[in-house]
Protein: Glycosyltransferase, group 2 family protein
Amino acid sequence: MEPTPISASSASLGSPNTIEEPSAPQSDARVEGREAGCTVGGIGQSDGRAEPGSTGVPAPDAPDAQSVRVVTVAFNPGEELDRFLASLAAATARRLTVVIADNGTEHDVVTAAAQRHGARVVGDGTNLGYGAGANLAAADLQEDWVVVANPDLVWEPGSLDVLIDAGLANPAAGCLGPLLLNTDGTVYPSGRALPSLVKGAGHAVLGKVWPTNPFSAAYHTAEQGGPGGIRTVGWLSGACLLLPAAAWRRLGGFDDGYFMFFEDVDLGERVGRAGWLNVQVRDSVVIHEQGASWKARPEKMIRAHHASARHYLSGVYDAPWQAPVRWALCGGLRLREELEVLASRH
Structure:
């Protein structure tokens, strides 16, 4: 099922929840694949993975809308992988396929967990990055829906079915995500606005030293509130995403140019540019246990995060006349990167 692009008749997008009326879709959809780096031009070109498709949508009760593939990317997982897989059994009553991308670990650990829970393993242990690993696990997608989820999640009973039901009720939704909660019950930031030039720069510069600044407040607006309801956001956390299979294929999945971080921001932007909505379904609750592997290597994570930020902004501001903007943003990000690395060493 391919989601219906937004049109003037798509103001009300489902019952009982209603999503705010979106702006008209942009016709100049930016598709998959951007060159990395802060260069003057030639960034943001299509890599040819997008494919044209019909916008016809089967009825919500169509029998071909009842299968789902969950893909997860494993990198040195611990017991959380077993908890993740076990929780899926009660998360959906639909036909479920689980595929694990082995991105670097003791292969026997992942294989044993997969065998215990009826999952399939792909990959040879090479660390492809998060987005590329997810793409590999979804490469032979035959199901009607695809979920990309971190292995450190615990699904609440019925939570995946709530997500899929919301997608069926709101055919303009090209990407959906649940409300992610930390283990202490606080809200994990899983739905945000796309970073505009002014707000994004303000948040990047002031977010650490002045957390309540107006730029960061605007960026975090979509995170406010607890469970319940449906809302549109600019992008959804790659920790847990649901897409109609047709949308995943048309978008080409994640951009492999992002090793980690910002692949979800980029996907959210492309969903919007294709004329669809990014929808957070806050009636679907998933617990994010947050593995500690990245915290043990803060410098590597800081550098990866800033490299992906530069890659993303170089694609957003890719016109030749925007070169000064790219240079300024990339320079500012490099300065912030070094300051954060220095702080992490103390």
Q: What stands out?
A: The chain has three domains: 65-187+225-290, 195-220, 297-346. The two ends are 51 Å apart (CA to CA). The chain has a mean pLDDT of 75. The first strand starts at residue 67 and ends at 74.
